[in-house]
Amino acid sequence: MRTPDRTLFVKGLPADHPRVWTQKREALISPHVQGIAPHLRWHVEDSGWSLLGFDYIEGGHADYTPTSQDLPAVMAGMIRLTEIHAPSIELKSMTHRFRSYVKEPSDLSWFAGDSLLHTEWNPHNVLITADHALIVDWGWASTGAAWIDPALWLLWLIAHGHTCDQSERAAAAHPAWRHAPAEGLRVFARVQRRLWDSIADESQDDWATPMQEAAHAWEKHRT
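^ thats the sequence. predicted structure below, dont judge the formating
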């Protein structure tokens, strides 16, 4: 969208869409993630639509393949996120989001924490500019243990051709990774396999099956 003084990227959902709440969540969190996300100019709810207007960013989606030069910039953005305290807005917790994928409720304790997490590390949610990475699509921002974001990211790396060892080495650049408990990672890998089995059964997206395969591979690696 072009205006007399700027170009905007407009993101919208019908007001009756079952996930329109993600628009509201993104509008609420936007002031807190300035510098690592495109600037939100406005949020409008009118005529049956929820619309978000962001500054348009010149750049491309992140490349997650093993030879990519984008990975350090992605990790740098992820590390910058750790410097932002979770704002006092309604955010889902990872213990809540994963509750359907554990057999023992006590397993959820591994995921508890108050760190602000992005959680949706699809490469289309990371824009690479000339000098840094910007993270978009904050509708699923949550709170939890700080090591969860790099753990989620490494699954996308596996799906894009990295081995499990390579993906874990990339994740290890995150300062929280050294505090990730081995048993917590095993439980997390099992949860991700169950989650991606469920997603792949229902989704038509071309990334669903590679992510399911990545989750199976990482669970085996962590067993």
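The two ends are 49 Å apart (CA to CA).
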